[in-house]
Each structure stands twice: as C-alpha cells, then as structure tokens.
Amino acid sequence: MRYLIYGVGAVGLGLASFITETGQPVDIITRQETAAALREGGIIRTGLFGSHATPPGLLQAFTRIEDVGEAPYTHILFCTKSYDLAEAAKNVASRRDLLERILDGRLSVVLTQNGWGNAETCSAFFPDQRIFNARVITGFIKTAPNRVDITVHADAVTMGSLFGAPPDSLETLCRTIREGGLPCRVTVEIERDLWAKMLYNCALNPLGAIFGVPYGVLGEWDYTRYIMEGIVREIFEVMAGAGYRTHWERPGEYLKIFYEKLLPATAGHESSTLQDIRRQSRTEIEALNGAVVRLGEGLGVSVPVNAVIYRMLRFLEERNMGLKPSY
User: How many whole angstroms separate alpha carbon 279 and alpha carbon 271?
Assistant: First the structure.
C-alpha cells in the first residue's frame, strides 16, 4: 500500500503518524513551511496513545501536486479544511495518472473534513463510487509545523460511502491505522456517523470559539446548554425534512448521551474553530452550522438558533481576518 495525504493540519499529521508507525511510507502535499519541517524532523506525536516519532525517511513532502511522482497510490486522504477541498480535488484531478487510477477503481478518495457537503464537493471531480468519508472524533492539535498533540479521543475513526459504494477498498487503510495504534473501522452507516458528529460539532465548536472556552465549560452553564439544545433540536428537524438519519430518533435521546458521555470525555478540548479564530484564519463554519442553515432554508425548516450562531461566528471570523463589513 502507498498513501498520499493532501493537507497536513492537525488531523493530517495525526493520521500520517499512525500510518507510518506501522512502517508504511506516506507522501504528503502541504505548505512550504510544513514540508521543510517534515523533511528535516519527521512527525512528532504526543498526548493520548503515547509519543511517537516518524523518521523523515518514511515521508516525502511536496508543495505541489505536479511534484508528486507516479507512485501507485491506493488511497488519497484529503485532510484539508472543508473550504479548501474543492481546490485540492481539482488539483488531484488535473493529474491524468491519478485520475485514471481513481476512474478504474485502483485508487480511493477519503475525506476527513468536518461538516456536511464534502462528498458532494468531490463529486464534481471524481466518480461517486470512489469517494468515501471518514468520521474523525479524536482531538488533534497542531503545536508546530511537524508536531501534533492528541488531547481527547471519543470513538474510533469510521470510514464508509455516502453513495452506497462497497467499503472493501477501505479495509487495508483502516487496518493500517488500527495497527498503528488508532482505533479505526469500516462502516456501512457513515451517514449516521457524520450526522452524529454534526450534532456534536455544531453544538460545541462555534460556542467554544465565540466564548473562548473548552467544551466542558459549555456544559456547566444553563445559558449555554439552552443554546446547544436549540441547535440540536433544529438539526433533528432538518434531518427529518431531508430524509437523513443518525443513531438517535429524537433530540432528547442524543442529548442524554451528549451530556452523560460525549461532553465529559472531551471536556478539556478546545475546538478547531477556536484554534482557527486564535490564528486569525478562516473556520469551517460554512460546513457546520452554515450547512444546517442552507438545508433549512431549502426545506422551509426554521433554524433560528443555528442562523444566529452562524452569523455570530462569521462576524468574529471576518473581523479577525481584517475583512471589511459587508455594508
């Protein structure tokens, strides 16, 4: 097997470290600063699951898709932010050799982004039957260009198809990640897993960023609980209207698990959205609460709590980035 990881933020670094822990080489496409750090020092992983150092010899780091050799990749893991996914997919599709491997079924595309709508983004470039989604609910924090810290772990990584494709081609990838130390499995219920993560991320990520607090603090106050519960109820209404399913039939069933299991297990984690705000960079809010708002509008389902939170985060994001007001 040979793997290409496109984009190594926190999740990309983390997954690369688990793959290479088995001795498997990984090729990476990333920014110049990160590529230089990887070539010199490999990957340093700390936190949960122990410390591990990936030697530079197991990595090849590139800054452009044009520089990647004609390696017989079996999987491309897109670990960019959701807003960069379309450009990354377009770049990969521009490589005839890679596109041919995807078209004839020798190469699978795996998406690790937060939010909803990422598979549809890639459908403009690749056949639906070669596109797979991964649900990652482990907390990775990038502490330096080639260093990643794992702060929380709520459940195994799951991978599957939203388009009904057999997940057989994912078995070797999941086994490699699992043998590297991170629980990972194939599923035929990836839609349910992704919407479970949407419930979790939409409730916690924007509020954690707006108030500058870790997840656990949001569960300690009635004020923030009220907001999170409103977000969750609206998402269930949107799912019902769109015909999507998750692992719980009603909001109350999910919220019981959320407060009793999910939130305590990740109480100390600061969301990727908060990390983005602190870096004064763009967030993935469009693929999270923004996606809920757009789905609600299309269905005629009112989602006022999600709409307000989405707009609050967009204000915070754009002001931090130095953008000018719209009017």
Answer: 13
Chain centre to alpha carbon of residue 147 = 18
Average of per-residue pLDDT values in the chain:
96
What pTM was computed for the model?
0.94
Instruction: Classify domain 192-320 at the CATH class level.
Output: mainly alpha
CATH 3.30.190.30 fits domain 3-188 = no
Burial of 56 (0-12, 13-18, 19+ CB in 10 A): middle
135, 154 Cβ separation under 8 angstroms: no
The CA-atom distances, in angstroms, between 98 and each of 4, 20, 112, 151 are 11, 22, 19, 35
Q: Where in the chain is the domain with CATH 1.10.1040.10?
A: 192-320
Q: Is the pLDDT of residue 326 over 90?
A: no
**Active site members:** 197
201 close to 207: Cβ distance less than 8 angstroms: no
Nearest to 28 by CA among 12, 46, 10, 11: 12
Residue 247: HSE in the Cβ half-sphere, 13 Å Cα cutoff: 15
